[in-house]
Amino acid sequence: MRTLPFFPPDLFEADRDALLKSLFEVGTDPEQRFILGRRTAELEQAIKDASGAGDVAACGSGTGGLELAVGALGIGPGDEVIVPAFCCQPVASSVANAGATPVFADVDPWTMVMDPDAIEPLITGRTRAIMPAHLFSIMADMPRIMEIADRHGLPVIEDAAVAQGAVLDGVPAGRWGTLGVFSFFQVKAFGTAGEGGVVLTDDPELARAVRMLRNHGQDGVNRFLHHRIGRNSRFDEVIAAFQLHRLPTFADRLERRARIADYYTERFAPLVERGVKAPPAGRNGRCYYVYSLQVSRRADLRAYLTENGIGSHVYYPTPLPLQPAFSAWAPEGADWPRSRWASESNLAIPIWPHLTDADVERIADTICDFFA
Ligand SMILES: Cc1ncc(COP(=O)(O)O)c(C=O)c1O
User: At 361, which CATH number?
Assistant: First the structure.
Protein backbone atom coordinates (compact mmCIF):
# COMPACT_ATOMS: atom_id res chain seq x y z
CA MET A 1 0.00 0.00 0.00
CA ARG A 2 1.45 3.38 -1.07
CA THR A 3 1.84 5.81 1.80
CA LEU A 4 0.30 9.22 1.18
CA PRO A 5 2.09 11.60 3.55
CA PHE A 6 0.66 14.97 4.49
CA PHE A 7 4.03 16.61 3.74
CA PRO A 8 5.26 14.80 0.63
CA PRO A 9 9.01 14.64 0.06
CA ASP A 10 8.58 14.92 -3.73
CA LEU A 11 6.81 18.29 -3.84
CA PHE A 12 9.48 19.86 -6.07
CA GLU A 13 10.62 16.69 -7.84
CA ALA A 14 9.33 17.79 -11.26
CA ASP A 15 11.40 20.98 -10.99
CA ARG A 16 14.54 19.50 -9.49
CA ASP A 17 16.74 20.26 -12.52
CA ALA A 18 15.51 23.86 -12.67
CA LEU A 19 16.36 24.34 -9.00
CA LEU A 20 19.88 22.99 -9.43
CA LYS A 21 20.33 25.14 -12.55
CA SER A 22 19.15 28.27 -10.66
CA LEU A 23 21.61 27.53 -7.87
CA PHE A 24 24.47 27.10 -10.33
CA GLU A 25 23.61 30.21 -12.35
CA VAL A 26 23.28 32.50 -9.36
CA GLY A 27 26.36 31.03 -7.71
CA THR A 28 28.57 31.53 -10.77
CA ASP A 29 27.05 34.81 -12.01
CA PRO A 30 29.84 37.43 -12.34
CA GLU A 31 27.50 39.86 -10.51
CA GLN A 32 27.72 37.69 -7.35
CA ARG A 33 24.39 39.07 -6.12
CA PHE A 34 22.58 36.62 -3.91
CA ILE A 35 19.77 38.86 -2.67
CA LEU A 36 17.55 41.56 -4.20
CA GLY A 37 19.10 41.29 -7.67
CA ARG A 38 17.64 41.29 -11.17
CA ARG A 39 15.88 37.94 -10.71
CA THR A 40 14.04 39.28 -7.67
CA ALA A 41 13.04 42.39 -9.66
CA GLU A 42 11.77 40.14 -12.47
CA LEU A 43 9.70 38.07 -10.04
CA GLU A 44 8.25 41.24 -8.48
CA GLN A 45 7.27 42.45 -11.96
CA ALA A 46 5.71 39.07 -12.86
CA ILE A 47 3.56 39.07 -9.69
CA LYS A 48 2.68 42.71 -10.29
CA ASP A 49 1.50 41.82 -13.81
CA ALA A 50 -0.44 38.78 -12.60
CA SER A 51 -2.13 40.56 -9.70
CA GLY A 52 -2.57 44.06 -11.11
CA ALA A 53 -0.97 45.55 -7.97
CA GLY A 54 0.58 49.02 -8.19
CA ASP A 55 3.77 47.68 -6.63
CA VAL A 56 5.10 44.35 -5.38
CA ALA A 57 8.09 44.17 -3.04
CA ALA A 58 9.70 40.80 -2.35
CA CYS A 59 10.84 40.05 1.19
CA GLY A 60 12.26 37.28 3.35
CA SER A 61 9.00 35.50 4.27
CA GLY A 62 5.27 35.97 4.79
CA THR A 63 6.04 36.86 8.41
CA GLY A 64 8.55 39.45 7.18
CA GLY A 65 5.86 40.81 4.85
CA LEU A 66 3.39 41.29 7.71
CA GLU A 67 6.08 42.98 9.82
CA LEU A 68 6.98 45.30 6.93
CA ALA A 69 3.31 46.16 6.38
CA VAL A 70 2.89 47.00 10.08
CA GLY A 71 6.09 49.09 9.95
CA ALA A 72 5.10 50.88 6.72
CA LEU A 73 1.84 51.98 8.35
CA GLY A 74 3.85 53.44 11.23
CA ILE A 75 2.09 51.26 13.81
CA GLY A 76 3.81 51.25 17.21
CA PRO A 77 3.38 51.48 20.98
CA GLY A 78 -0.11 52.48 22.08
CA ASP A 79 -1.68 51.32 18.81
CA GLU A 80 -4.04 48.38 18.39
CA VAL A 81 -4.49 46.04 15.43
CA ILE A 82 -7.43 43.63 15.17
CA VAL A 83 -6.26 40.11 14.22
CA PRO A 84 -7.96 36.69 14.09
CA ALA A 85 -7.84 34.62 17.30
CA PHE A 86 -7.52 31.38 15.31
CA CYS A 87 -4.63 31.77 12.92
CA CYS A 88 -0.95 31.49 12.31
CA GLN A 89 1.22 33.11 15.01
CA PRO A 90 2.72 35.94 12.84
CA VAL A 91 -0.57 37.86 12.60
CA ALA A 92 -0.16 38.57 16.31
CA SER A 93 3.63 38.64 16.62
CA SER A 94 4.02 41.14 13.75
CA VAL A 95 1.90 43.55 15.80
CA ALA A 96 3.42 42.74 19.22
CA ASN A 97 6.98 43.00 17.84
CA ALA A 98 6.18 46.57 16.76
CA GLY A 99 5.28 47.38 20.37
CA ALA A 100 1.57 47.53 19.49
CA THR A 101 -1.35 45.50 20.85
CA PRO A 102 -2.90 42.59 18.96
CA VAL A 103 -6.65 42.57 19.64
CA PHE A 104 -8.12 39.14 19.00
CA ALA A 105 -11.37 38.72 17.06
CA ASP A 106 -13.23 35.41 17.01
CA VAL A 107 -13.71 33.51 13.75
CA ASP A 108 -16.64 32.17 11.77
CA PRO A 109 -17.52 28.69 13.07
CA TRP A 110 -17.56 27.07 9.64
CA THR A 111 -15.04 28.93 7.46
CA MET A 112 -12.65 29.49 10.43
CA VAL A 113 -11.64 32.95 9.14
CA MET A 114 -12.17 36.24 11.01
CA ASP A 115 -15.86 36.92 11.58
CA PRO A 116 -16.73 40.45 10.38
CA ASP A 117 -19.38 40.68 13.15
CA ALA A 118 -16.60 40.26 15.74
CA ILE A 119 -14.57 43.21 14.41
CA GLU A 120 -16.69 46.28 15.05
CA PRO A 121 -17.14 45.82 18.83
CA LEU A 122 -13.32 45.70 19.14
CA ILE A 123 -12.65 49.02 17.38
CA THR A 124 -11.45 51.74 19.78
CA GLY A 125 -9.81 55.13 19.44
CA ARG A 126 -6.46 53.31 19.40
CA THR A 127 -7.25 50.93 16.53
CA ARG A 128 -4.82 51.56 13.67
CA ALA A 129 -5.51 48.63 11.32
CA ILE A 130 -7.48 45.44 10.72
CA MET A 131 -5.53 42.33 9.73
CA PRO A 132 -7.77 39.55 8.36
CA ALA A 133 -6.13 36.34 7.11
CA HIS A 134 -7.33 33.87 4.51
CA LEU A 135 -7.07 30.34 5.80
CA PHE A 136 -7.06 26.71 4.70
CA SER A 137 -9.47 26.82 1.81
CA ILE A 138 -11.39 30.04 2.02
CA MET A 139 -10.74 33.76 1.85
CA ALA A 140 -11.91 36.06 4.63
CA ASP A 141 -15.10 38.02 3.95
CA MET A 142 -13.22 40.93 2.38
CA PRO A 143 -16.22 42.90 1.05
CA ARG A 144 -17.64 43.22 4.58
CA ILE A 145 -14.25 43.76 6.20
CA MET A 146 -13.36 46.53 3.73
CA GLU A 147 -16.75 48.14 4.30
CA ILE A 148 -16.13 48.20 8.08
CA ALA A 149 -12.55 49.46 7.61
CA ASP A 150 -13.64 52.20 5.20
CA ARG A 151 -16.41 53.34 7.55
CA HIS A 152 -13.85 53.72 10.35
CA GLY A 153 -11.07 55.11 8.15
CA LEU A 154 -8.77 52.16 8.93
CA PRO A 155 -6.19 50.53 6.66
CA VAL A 156 -6.36 46.77 6.11
CA ILE A 157 -3.35 44.46 6.10
CA GLU A 158 -4.63 41.47 4.11
CA ASP A 159 -2.75 38.33 5.12
CA ALA A 160 -3.01 36.40 1.87
CA ALA A 161 0.00 34.24 2.78
CA VAL A 162 -1.87 31.07 1.82
CA ALA A 163 -4.17 32.47 -0.85
CA GLN A 164 -2.05 33.56 -3.81
CA GLY A 165 -4.05 32.92 -6.98
CA ALA A 166 -7.46 32.96 -5.26
CA VAL A 167 -10.07 35.42 -6.51
CA LEU A 168 -13.11 36.72 -4.59
CA ASP A 169 -15.84 38.57 -6.55
CA GLY A 170 -13.34 39.21 -9.35
CA VAL A 171 -10.67 40.72 -7.06
CA PRO A 172 -7.50 38.66 -6.47
CA ALA A 173 -6.41 37.77 -2.93
CA GLY A 174 -3.79 40.25 -1.77
CA ARG A 175 -5.48 43.07 -3.72
CA TRP A 176 -8.35 43.80 -1.33
CA GLY A 177 -6.35 45.33 1.51
CA THR A 178 -4.34 48.54 1.71
CA LEU A 179 -1.41 46.13 1.78
CA GLY A 180 -1.49 42.41 0.94
CA VAL A 181 1.04 39.71 1.77
CA PHE A 182 1.87 36.37 0.09
CA SER A 183 4.14 33.66 1.50
CA PHE A 184 6.27 31.22 -0.50
CA PHE A 185 6.84 28.86 2.42
CA GLN A 186 7.05 25.37 0.98
CA VAL A 187 3.50 24.17 1.59
CA LYS A 188 1.78 27.41 0.51
CA ALA A 189 -0.11 27.78 -2.79
CA PHE A 190 3.00 29.15 -4.53
CA GLY A 191 5.39 27.52 -2.08
CA THR A 192 9.06 27.09 -2.82
CA ALA A 193 12.11 25.13 -1.72
CA GLY A 194 12.94 27.67 0.98
CA GLU A 195 11.53 30.93 2.32
CA GLY A 196 10.16 34.08 0.73
CA GLY A 197 7.20 36.39 0.47
CA VAL A 198 5.94 39.58 -1.14
CA VAL A 199 4.03 42.69 -0.11
CA LEU A 200 1.53 44.14 -2.59
CA THR A 201 0.13 47.66 -2.47
CA ASP A 202 -1.22 50.38 -4.75
CA ASP A 203 0.11 53.12 -2.47
CA PRO A 204 3.53 54.35 -3.72
CA GLU A 205 4.47 55.79 -0.31
CA LEU A 206 3.72 52.51 1.48
CA ALA A 207 5.62 50.61 -1.21
CA ARG A 208 8.62 52.90 -0.73
CA ALA A 209 8.47 52.35 3.02
CA VAL A 210 8.29 48.54 2.60
CA ARG A 211 11.28 48.56 0.24
CA MET A 212 13.25 50.69 2.65
CA LEU A 213 12.33 48.73 5.77
CA ARG A 214 13.18 45.34 4.20
CA ASN A 215 16.83 46.35 3.80
CA HIS A 216 17.85 48.18 6.98
CA GLY A 217 16.13 51.44 6.07
CA GLN A 218 18.29 52.08 2.98
CA ASP A 219 16.70 53.64 -0.10
CA GLY A 220 18.20 51.30 -2.71
CA VAL A 221 20.39 54.08 -4.14
CA ASN A 222 22.65 55.24 -1.33
CA ARG A 223 24.28 52.27 0.35
CA PHE A 224 24.99 52.69 4.09
CA LEU A 225 22.59 55.64 4.31
CA HIS A 226 19.86 54.55 6.73
CA HIS A 227 16.68 56.66 6.67
CA ARG A 228 14.88 54.35 9.09
CA ILE A 229 15.87 51.49 11.39
CA GLY A 230 14.29 48.77 9.24
CA ARG A 231 15.22 45.10 9.36
CA ASN A 232 16.69 42.34 7.24
CA SER A 233 13.85 40.82 5.20
CA ARG A 234 15.43 40.46 1.78
CA PHE A 235 14.73 38.09 -1.10
CA ASP A 236 17.01 35.28 -2.27
CA GLU A 237 18.06 35.26 -5.94
CA VAL A 238 18.10 31.43 -6.22
CA ILE A 239 14.52 31.32 -4.98
CA ALA A 240 13.59 34.17 -7.36
CA ALA A 241 14.94 32.22 -10.34
CA PHE A 242 13.17 29.05 -9.16
CA GLN A 243 9.84 30.84 -8.66
CA LEU A 244 10.12 32.46 -12.10
CA HIS A 245 10.53 28.95 -13.50
CA ARG A 246 7.48 27.69 -11.56
CA LEU A 247 5.17 30.64 -12.26
CA PRO A 248 3.90 29.50 -15.70
CA THR A 249 2.66 26.19 -14.22
CA PHE A 250 1.19 27.73 -11.04
CA ALA A 251 -2.36 28.07 -12.44
CA ASP A 252 -2.42 24.38 -13.43
CA ARG A 253 -1.41 23.32 -9.91
CA LEU A 254 -4.10 25.54 -8.40
CA GLU A 255 -6.71 24.09 -10.75
CA ARG A 256 -5.71 20.54 -9.83
CA ARG A 257 -6.04 21.39 -6.14
CA ALA A 258 -9.48 22.93 -6.75
CA ARG A 259 -10.66 19.83 -8.61
CA ILE A 260 -9.51 17.58 -5.77
CA ALA A 261 -11.34 19.88 -3.34
CA ASP A 262 -14.53 19.77 -5.44
CA TYR A 263 -14.40 15.97 -5.35
CA TYR A 264 -13.74 15.78 -1.60
CA THR A 265 -16.53 18.24 -0.80
CA GLU A 266 -19.01 16.19 -2.83
CA ARG A 267 -17.91 12.92 -1.20
CA PHE A 268 -17.97 14.31 2.35
CA ALA A 269 -21.30 16.18 2.11
CA PRO A 270 -23.31 13.18 3.44
CA LEU A 271 -21.01 12.90 6.48
CA VAL A 272 -22.45 16.05 8.00
CA GLU A 273 -24.79 13.82 10.07
CA ARG A 274 -21.68 12.09 11.47
CA GLY A 275 -20.15 15.29 12.79
CA VAL A 276 -17.97 16.03 9.76
CA LYS A 277 -18.11 19.40 8.09
CA ALA A 278 -16.44 19.98 4.73
CA PRO A 279 -15.58 23.52 3.61
CA PRO A 280 -18.33 25.33 1.70
CA ALA A 281 -18.44 24.16 -1.94
CA GLY A 282 -17.59 26.44 -4.85
CA ARG A 283 -14.76 28.34 -6.44
CA ASN A 284 -15.38 32.00 -5.54
CA GLY A 285 -12.86 33.13 -2.89
CA ARG A 286 -11.39 29.64 -2.52
CA CYS A 287 -7.71 28.93 -1.95
CA TYR A 288 -7.11 25.23 -1.64
CA TYR A 289 -3.64 25.37 -0.18
CA VAL A 290 -4.96 23.03 2.50
CA TYR A 291 -8.21 21.06 2.66
CA SER A 292 -9.44 21.06 6.26
CA LEU A 293 -12.46 19.26 7.60
CA GLN A 294 -14.05 19.92 10.95
CA VAL A 295 -14.42 16.60 12.75
CA SER A 296 -15.76 15.93 16.24
CA ARG A 297 -14.01 12.50 16.43
CA ARG A 298 -10.72 13.91 15.20
CA ALA A 299 -8.26 11.77 17.15
CA ASP A 300 -10.03 8.52 16.12
CA LEU A 301 -10.18 9.52 12.47
CA ARG A 302 -6.51 10.54 12.48
CA ALA A 303 -5.51 7.19 13.96
CA TYR A 304 -7.58 5.35 11.34
CA LEU A 305 -6.01 7.36 8.53
CA THR A 306 -2.51 6.65 9.87
CA GLU A 307 -3.32 2.91 10.04
CA ASN A 308 -4.29 3.14 6.40
CA GLY A 309 -1.14 4.96 5.30
CA ILE A 310 -2.70 8.40 4.92
CA GLY A 311 -1.13 11.46 6.53
CA SER A 312 -3.14 14.29 8.04
CA HIS A 313 -2.35 17.45 9.96
CA VAL A 314 -3.86 19.54 12.75
CA TYR A 315 -3.26 23.28 12.39
CA TYR A 316 -3.19 25.68 15.35
CA PRO A 317 -4.36 23.36 18.17
CA THR A 318 -4.39 26.35 20.56
CA PRO A 319 -5.99 29.69 19.64
CA LEU A 320 -3.56 32.62 19.72
CA PRO A 321 -4.89 34.44 22.81
CA LEU A 322 -4.65 31.17 24.78
CA GLN A 323 -0.96 30.79 23.92
CA PRO A 324 1.46 31.67 26.76
CA ALA A 325 3.24 34.15 24.46
CA PHE A 326 0.08 36.21 23.96
CA SER A 327 -1.48 35.93 27.41
CA ALA A 328 -0.64 39.59 28.09
CA TRP A 329 -2.99 40.55 25.25
CA ALA A 330 -5.87 38.26 26.29
CA PRO A 331 -8.23 40.45 28.33
CA GLU A 332 -9.54 38.78 31.47
CA GLY A 333 -12.92 37.16 30.97
CA ALA A 334 -12.66 37.33 27.17
CA ASP A 335 -13.42 34.14 25.27
CA TRP A 336 -13.12 33.02 21.68
CA PRO A 337 -15.40 29.93 21.62
CA ARG A 338 -15.45 29.51 17.85
CA SER A 339 -11.67 29.73 17.66
CA ARG A 340 -11.48 27.06 20.39
CA TRP A 341 -13.82 24.89 18.32
CA ALA A 342 -11.70 25.43 15.19
CA SER A 343 -8.59 24.42 17.16
CA GLU A 344 -10.29 21.30 18.51
CA SER A 345 -11.90 20.13 15.29
CA ASN A 346 -9.79 21.03 12.24
CA LEU A 347 -8.16 18.19 10.37
CA ALA A 348 -6.29 18.74 7.11
CA ILE A 349 -5.98 15.92 4.58
CA PRO A 350 -3.62 15.70 1.58
CA ILE A 351 -4.47 17.89 -1.41
CA TRP A 352 -1.19 17.94 -3.33
CA PRO A 353 -1.50 18.64 -7.05
CA HIS A 354 0.52 15.52 -7.88
CA LEU A 355 -1.88 13.15 -6.08
CA THR A 356 -3.39 10.80 -8.68
CA ASP A 357 -7.16 10.39 -9.06
CA ALA A 358 -6.77 6.94 -7.47
CA ASP A 359 -4.96 8.48 -4.45
CA VAL A 360 -7.71 11.06 -4.02
CA GLU A 361 -10.41 8.40 -4.28
CA ARG A 362 -8.61 6.24 -1.73
CA ILE A 363 -8.38 9.12 0.75
CA ALA A 364 -12.09 9.90 0.36
CA ASP A 365 -13.05 6.18 0.55
CA THR A 366 -11.00 5.71 3.72
CA ILE A 367 -12.68 8.67 5.45
CA CYS A 368 -16.14 7.53 4.34
CA ASP A 369 -15.38 3.93 5.48
CA PHE A 370 -14.42 5.19 8.93
CA PHE A 371 -17.85 6.77 9.38
CA ALA A 372 -19.77 3.91 7.69
C1 LIG B 1 -2.06 32.67 7.49
C2 LIG B 1 -0.57 32.80 7.52
N3 LIG B 1 0.00 34.01 7.67
C4 LIG B 1 1.33 34.19 7.68
C5 LIG B 1 2.19 33.14 7.54
C6 LIG B 1 3.67 33.37 7.61
O7 LIG B 1 4.33 33.04 6.42
P8 LIG B 1 5.87 32.55 6.47
O9 LIG B 1 5.88 31.13 6.94
O10 LIG B 1 6.31 32.70 5.04
O11 LIG B 1 6.59 33.46 7.37
C12 LIG B 1 1.67 31.85 7.38
C13 LIG B 1 2.56 30.69 7.21
O14 LIG B 1 2.67 29.79 7.98
C15 LIG B 1 0.24 31.67 7.37
O16 LIG B 1 -0.29 30.45 7.25
Answer: 3.90.1150.10
* Domain region containing 329: 249-371
pLDDT in tens, 163-191: 999 999 999 999 999 999 999 999 999 99
CA of 91 to the centre of ligand 1 (A): 8
Q: Which atom of ligand 1 is nearest to the CA of 87?
A: 1
Tell me how crowded residue 229 is: count the other CB atoms within 10 A of its CB: 9
Report the separation in Å between the CA atom of 41 and the middle of ligand 1, taken as the mean of its atom positions.
Answer: 22
Residue type, 180: G
Give the residue-averaged pLDDT of 232-254: 97
Q: How far apart are CA 139 and CA 287, in angstroms?
A: 7
Based on the fold, state whether residues 61 and 154 are members of the same structural domain. Answer: yes
Same domain, residue pair 207 and 62: yes
Residue nearest to atom 3 of ligand 1 (CA): 161
> Ligand 1 centroid to 366 CA: how many Å?
30
Distance (angstroms) between ligand 1 centre and the Cα of 69 equals 14
DSSP tally for the chain: helices H, then strands E: 11, 12
Residue 220 pLDDT exceeds 90: no
Give how many domains the chain has, as a whole number.
2
Name the nearest CA neighbour of 201 among 78, 50, 56: 56
Task: Please give the sequence-ordered ranges of beta strands (E in DSSP) within 64-168, or none if there are none.
Answer: 80-84, 101-105, 127-130, 157-159, 167-168
| Angle in degrees, CA 129, 341, 311, rounded to 5 | 105
The Å distance, Cα 161 to ligand 1 centre, comes to 5
SS3 helix, strand, coil % of the chain, rounded to 5? 40, 15, 40
- Of the residues 7, 59, 61, 63, which should be mutated to test ligand 1's pocket, given the most ligand atoms within 8 Å of the CB? 63
Residues with CB under 6 A from ligand 1: 61-63, 87-88, 90, 133, 135, 159, 161-162, 183, 185, 197
Q: Determine the Cα–Cα distance for residues 122 and 171; give it in Å rounded to an integer.
A: 27
> What pLDDT is stored for residue 1 in this prediction?
83
